[in-house]
Design a protein that fits this description.
By secondary structure, the protein is mostly helical. The protein contains four helices and no strands. It is 51% helix and 0% strand. The N and C termini lie far apart (46 Å).
Amino acid sequence: MTRLGAQTELTRKEFFDYGRLFATSYERTIAGTASQVADHLEEIFEATGSRGGFMLGHVVSMPGDLVAIVELLVPELQRRGRFRREYKGRTLRQNLFDE
């Protein structure tokens, strides 16, 4: 209620819908073909000038969604030059911090 205001009145359904969206971050869900999702990610990346990348979370139907990301989205982003094809380091630390 701190986000909506103390005087805000919600139905029971609105309350649970809002809680579900807040808890799962589904208001930021991106869905579509690999090409459509890649388009959206590129648009956000270009608009924000981000250098950090994206966090993918709340994958509900794991491992199927993770497989789709790896087999469909990553190759599309690689084709566009937006995702690396190889790593220089042998450890996670080396790859994260370019050691």
